[in-house]
Amino acid sequence: MFSKACEYGIRATLYVAMQSMEGQRAGLREIVDVTGTPAAYMAKILQKLVHAGILDSVRGPVGGFGISRIKIDNIRLAELVHTLEGDRFQGTCLLGKKSCGDTVCPLHNEFLEMKEEMLGMLENTSLFELASQLSLGLGTLKYRDEGET
Amino acid sequence: MFSKACEYGIRATLYVAMQSMEGQRAGLREIVDVTGTPAAYMAKILQKLVHAGILDSVRGPVGGFGISRIKIDNIRLAELVHTLEGDRFQGTCLLGKKSCGDTVCPLHNEFLEMKEEMLGMLENTSLFELASQLSLGLGTLKYRDEGET
DNA sequence: AAAATAAAAGACTAAATTGTCCTTTAATAT
DNA sequence: ATATTAAAGGACAATTTAGTCTTTTATTTT
Predict the structure, then answer these.
(1) Could you say which of B89, B133, B144 has the minimum Cβ distance to residue A99?
(2) Which of A135, B13, B29, B127 has the least C-beta neighbours within 10 A?
(3) Number of structural domains, chain B?
């Protein structure tokens, strides 16, 4: 569905958001631990999110990644997806490509509703919503088939 | 959204279905022309579809690819997607992996409805529905940004 | 100031996906 | 029978995605 980079990035961002809401920075080690993802690869993804202005970071001891409350409230899943895998989900038809907007795509009719719902959900779901659920223990960021038993 | 192989395969299958409904076989050259896809790669994809028992093929002049009326009626998009890109869309959470079924995934709640709709649509849309629309001139299988102007 | 800590950065390897090319095999037409 | 046509098959090449390793740079302790 999404690329690994995107999945990992979403999970990491949600964890950072959770920690930031508690006034805590999250270090790479910690993030990798909680999300069960490859450290060096995650480092790259976090870098990308920092460059994109989504996360902020400080080096050295007591350093780590954080995200401002304003961004937790305002950044939507759509923005994460966009920065982590380009426009694969932006305005493309479920079957074809960009031109689907004005050409009549046979699958367009079938999938239009679904696509709208999908994009709508990505546009409307804020980090806050998801991070809150996680804080309440309503979810996990680690998946059994990727980590240890 | 889907892999190239999957997109190409769906388009090819729909064209073959259209032609088969007219009692015509479709050759590779023709398929590649209509769908605007790389010939050698498409050949591989068609092979896969033949192996999977979705399409049938005959060699030599007057040969080409075809699909029986029974299969046009009964094969759903879900089956194409499954044979062309494995279980990436089968029972996996939109964010995480297989384990999402019993673990509580934070995005699961948000996306469950959408996922269900998506899988449902793949399960319920038959080749016949789509090929019929195409036959009526209600769509195209070629996308501008991939072919010539 | 020096040692320790942690992110930034860049070069690299591995694997999967996408795509090409060339030979073989099966069917038809002359 | 032979030539022709078109799919089957296998071996590659290119690209993208995923992942690793090593060095540098910025911060903070001591």
Answers:
(1) B144
(2) B29
(3) 1
DSSP structural state of residue B99: G
Residue B99 belongs to some domain of the structure: no
Q: Are A77 and A10 a contacting pair, CB within 8 Å?
A: yes
B109 domain residue, yes or no? no
pLDDT tens, position by position, B63-88: 999 999 999 999 999 999 999 988 77
Question: Rounded distance, CA B142 to CA B1, Å?
Answer: 17
Determine the distance in angstroms separating the CA of A61 from the nearest CA of chain B, rounded to an integer.
31
Q: What is the pLDDT of residues A32-57, one digit of tens each?
A: 999 999 999 999 999 999 999 999 99
One-letter identity of residue B2: F
Specify the CATH number for the domain of residue A34: 1.10.10.10
Residues 6+ apart with CB under 8 A from B8: B35, B37, B41, B42, B45
Q: Which amino acid is at B141?
A: L
Cα distance from B139 to chain A (closest Cα, Å)?
A: 5
Among chain B residues 50-69, those with CB within 7 Å of any atom of strand C? 58-63
Write out the residue range of the structural domain in which residue A71 sits.
4-89+126-135
Q: Is residue B61 part of a domain?
A: yes
Global confidence as pTM:
0.86
CB distance B47 to B10 below 8 Å: no
Would the CB atoms of A106 and B144 count as touching at under 8 Å? no
- pLDDT per residue over A121-148, tens digit each? 889 999 999 898 887 765 667 754 543 3
Q: SS3 of A76, please?
A: strand
Q: Could you say which residues 71-110 of protein chain B have a Cβ atom less than 7 A away from any atom in strand C?
A: 85
B32 Cβ neighbours under 8 A, 6+ residues apart:
B38, B39, B42
**Over the Cα atoms of chain A, what is R_g?**
17
**Domain-embedded: residue B110:** no
